[in-house]
């Protein structure tokens, strides 16, 4: 997804773009994503600024590729179970409002107006009208189609070609070299491997998540609904399994239930404790789900960096190499903003957000853990 | 009795029954877990007792083998060594630290969860029918060949009065003769393979005098019931508005293309259609068993590469009931020895081993004869629905392949929704693979059947406490295989 967005904005900036992927379109984490375009789960700071920029760009794509990707500005609803959780959520929302987020407090009595089938015992919530959703695989495919870039799927990058002065000159693949004065690393969870091919370190690690998909239902869940503890889980550094229910209906009918987080490497095997916790949490929010059937579940690997911020921008250690990866669970939502910033960096313009917090070499100084 | 090692057998068809009996006879406690109300699976499907069938054997030509299996089942059950759990729909088998947990759904609505813990598991999950789409295939009155047979064997009812049996594969013969014997008018048996191809494979088939005799027997039955056989023909369309009224069939040339000018219409109210079988591999795949093509990979003892997990029957490669019996028997004997920590003695099952070798060679020969005719995928018109659950047409799949990069089954699913519905692609995957030009691979389906969220939420902890999720802190990325759903 991030690669597709980089291709789109780079092509729009007039660059000749080639997209190389060892798999098919959306073959990695994109195809396992829920397609969240969220501002609600981000605290004020650089990631929230990127999310707000991205949300505006997604809105602008809504009539073109966005429509084909089932773009839906449905809004998010964060709910709190207890008065204490509600107080914390309300304070969190106040900070977000100051940073430009639309966040409307919702009393317990008003919750059924927004979500008629929500559990009755909740303390209240906050409504985020800027939250939206896309079908991520369609989004990636349609952005790629719209940008007109040449697509090389099923082609594996095996090396990064560098000149005598260290500048990047293209990539080596299993089906021949591709020359280019600039290479964008949008390899997601495998972004660390690609960086290593260029001789630089980028500690991207996988954080596994399961999603449960139910049978198709009429629209019983209108917003993206999640419990306030989700935000704490997203920001958590724990390796152990954390789940907080995130429930949403889709244009196609099934309800999607996320989001577990655990650091177990690239282990794709089914974890019944994870899906059990997801199911229990979802039923806690929407009791009618108890009798609804899950048709499938699947795992994806979020690409995360130690400080939970993506790597975006030029790499001074390898001139000509740009990074656009490490977005953890927010890659679909943050893709448009990332693509725009990368295109601005590629064309020598001034990026409209400060890239300092996202600079790829930031982990060298802190002597952070080597994967 | 409680010291006996405990084997759970999933599936009570020929392979599962043979495996369960072989293990129970050798001192293993066996729990036979099956979705059916009675043992037998699809091949030995039994009529409901309430129907008071006077001659159920009329629909089965291996009645003596079935009696032997049924008697063994009754004997071991009575002795308390074997528990047969009927109506248990297994949706997942998971390894827990020192046991295997078999999770099933119970009840007519399958809304109640139940878990069986065992020391080892034999997966005898059978196969399911492959049906390739053609215009009109979703009309009421079009059924699968196996479905028609199940109605006949299990309910003693006919799917219709005038039936065309069509497609390819050895299943079509017993379906056509069974329907005719039960009183249906079989207007045609339409087989896309050619008899000449069968003869060309004669070396592989000649090793099977029993099978040849069976073929001759069916030929006699077809003649006696005056069933017209149209070899090297295919159904090109089914017709009707509310339900089926006729089919159009056409002849195929040597390359499998339709011969112009050969199309003709056959009135009928039922079309029983099938294009062979595919193995049920969901449970094995989720356990982490390696697959070979679309089947579970096993060694000479029918062991998968996951310790404590055996597999037998159609799940390890489609080859019919006789092969399943041999594989099940070997699996049961191997499991009985290995579970007690002893090394089995393969010469002791030499007869079953010879039968397995013979039947596998035979099914390999059949596979080359009964392949779908060339060009079947190109013949599907754009407006024909290929994924019935999500109502995705052939044209949509072709467009996604051409313009969006849907080059494999997973990306085709993500970009068209074909395979995302109730059946999770079991029905449409062969067609989608044909339309996108990618190989048919076994899909990853962690849930072998839909599971109520309430059952998931109420799953018991493993006996030794919940599996510690995420134990290895920051384990290095040791597997960078491309992500597949």
Automatic annotation (TrEMBL), chain B:
Residues 457-471 have a biased composition (Low complexity). The keyword Nucleus does not apply. GO terms for molecular function: oxidoreductase activity. Signal peptide: none annotated. Keywords: Oxidoreductase. The keyword Iron does not apply. Residues 455-485 are annotated as: Disordered. Residues 6-321 form the FAD/NAD(P)-binding domain. It comes from the Bacteria. This is FAD/NAD(P)-binding oxidoreductase. It comes from Streptomyces monashensis. The lineage of its organism: Bacteria, Bacillati, Actinomycetota, Actinomycetes, Kitasatosporales.
């Amino acid at each position: 997804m991030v690669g597709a967005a980089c291709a789109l904005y780079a092509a729009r900036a007039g660059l000749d773009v080639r997209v190389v992927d060892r798999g098919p379109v959306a073959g990695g984490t994109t195809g396992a994503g829920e397609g969240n375009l969220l501002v609600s789960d981000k605290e004020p700071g650089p990631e929230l600024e990127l999310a707000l920029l991205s949300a505006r760009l997604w809105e602008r794509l809504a009539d073109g590729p966005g429509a084909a990707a089932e773009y839906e500005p449905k809004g998010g609803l964060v709910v709190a179970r207890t008065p204490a959780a509600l107080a914390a959520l309300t304070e969190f929302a106040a900070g977000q409002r100051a940073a430009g987020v639309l966040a409307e407090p919702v009393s317990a009595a008003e919750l059924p107006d927004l979500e008629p089938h929500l559990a009755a015992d909740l303390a209240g919530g906050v409504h985020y009208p800027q939250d939206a959703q896309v079908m991520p695989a369609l989004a990636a495919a349609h952005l790629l189609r719209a940008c007109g870039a040449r697509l090389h799927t099923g082609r594996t990058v095996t090396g990064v070609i560098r000149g005598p002065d260290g500048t990047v000159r293209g990539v080596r693949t299993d089906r021949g070299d591709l020359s280019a004065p600039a290479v964008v690393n949008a390899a997601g969870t495998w972004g660390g491997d690609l960086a290593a091919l260029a001789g630089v370190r980028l500690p991207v690690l996988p954080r596994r998540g399961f999603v449960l998909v139910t049978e198709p239902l009429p629209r019983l869940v209108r917003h993206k609904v999640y419990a306030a503890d989700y935000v704490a889980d997203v920001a958590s550094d724990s390796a152990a399994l954390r789940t907080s229910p995130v429930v949403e209906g889709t244009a196609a009918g099934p309800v999607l239930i996320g989001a577990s987080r655990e650091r177990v490497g690239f282990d794709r095997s089914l974890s019944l404790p994870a899906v059990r916790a997801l199911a229990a949490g979802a039923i806690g929010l929407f009791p009618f789900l108890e009798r609804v059937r899950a048709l499938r579940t699947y795992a994806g690997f979020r690409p995360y960096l130690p400080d939970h911020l993506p790597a975006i921008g030029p790499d001074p250690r390898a001139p000509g190499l740009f990074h656009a990866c490490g977005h953890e669970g927010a890659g679909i939502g943050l893709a448009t903003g990332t693509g725009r910033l990368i295109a601005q960096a590629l064309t020598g313009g001034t990026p409209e957000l400060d890239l300092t917090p996202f600079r790829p070499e930031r982990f060298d100084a802190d002597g952070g853990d080597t994967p | 009795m409680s010291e006996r090692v405990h084997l759970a057998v999933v599936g009570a068809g020929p392979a599962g029954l043979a495996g369960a009996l072989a293990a129970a006879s050798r001192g293993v406690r066996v729990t036979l877990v099956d979705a059916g109300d009675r043992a037998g699976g699809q091949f030995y499907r039994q009529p409901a007792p309430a129907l008071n069938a006077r001659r159920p054997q009329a629909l089965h030509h291996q009645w003596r083998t079935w009696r032997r299996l049924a008697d063994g089942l009754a004997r071991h059950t009575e002795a308390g060594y074997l528990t047969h759990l009927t109506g248990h729909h297994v949706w997942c088998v998971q390894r827990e630290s020192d046991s295997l947990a078999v999770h099933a759904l119970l009840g007519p609505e399958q809304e109640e969860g139940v878990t069986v813990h065992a020391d080892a598991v034999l997966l005898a999950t059978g196969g399911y029918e492959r049906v390739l789409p053609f215009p009109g295939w979703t009309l009421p009155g079009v059924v699968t060949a196996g479905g028609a047979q199940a109605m006949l064997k299990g309910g003693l009812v006919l799917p219709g009065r005038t039936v065309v049996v069509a497609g390819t594969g050895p299943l079509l013969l017993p379906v056509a003769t069974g329907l005719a014997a039960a009183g249906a008018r079989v207007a045609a048996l339409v087989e896309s393979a050619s008899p000449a191809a069968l003869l060309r494979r004669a070396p592989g088939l000649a090793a099977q005098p029993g099978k040849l005799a069976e073929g001759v027997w069916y030929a006699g039955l077809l003649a006696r019931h005056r069933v017209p056989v149209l070899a090297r023909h295919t159904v090109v369309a089914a017709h009707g508005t509310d339900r089926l009224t006729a089919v159009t069939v056409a002849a195929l040339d040597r390359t499998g293309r339709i011969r112009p000018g050969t199309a003709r219409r056959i009135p009928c109210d039922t079309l029983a259609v099938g294009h062979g079988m595919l193995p049920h591999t969901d449970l094995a795949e989720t356990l982490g068993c390696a697959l070979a093509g679309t089947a579970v990979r096993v060694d000479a003892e029918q062991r998968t590469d996951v310790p404590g997990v055996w597999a037998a029957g159609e799940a390890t490669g489609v080859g019919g009931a006789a092969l399943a019996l041999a594989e099940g028997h070997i699996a049961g004997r191997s499991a009985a020895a290995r579970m007690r920590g002893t090394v089995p003695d393969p010469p002791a099952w030499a007869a079953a081993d010879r039968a397995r070798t013979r039947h596998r060679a035979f099914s390999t020969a059949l596979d080359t004869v009964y392949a779908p005719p060339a060009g079947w995928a190109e013949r599907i018109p754009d407006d024909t629905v290929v994924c019935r659950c999500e109502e995705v047409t052939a044209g949509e799949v072709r467009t996604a392949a051409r313009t969006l990069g849907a080059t494999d089954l997973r990306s085709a699913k993500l970009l068209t929704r074909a395979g995302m519905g109730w059946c999770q692609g079991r029905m449409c995957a062969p067609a989608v693979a044909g339309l996108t030009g990618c190989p048919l691979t076994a899909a990853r389906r962690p849930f072998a059947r839909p599971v109520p969220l309430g059952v998931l939420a109420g799953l018991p902890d493993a006996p030794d406490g919940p599996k510690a999720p995420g134990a290895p802190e920051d384990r290095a990325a040791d597997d960078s295989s491309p992500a597949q759903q």
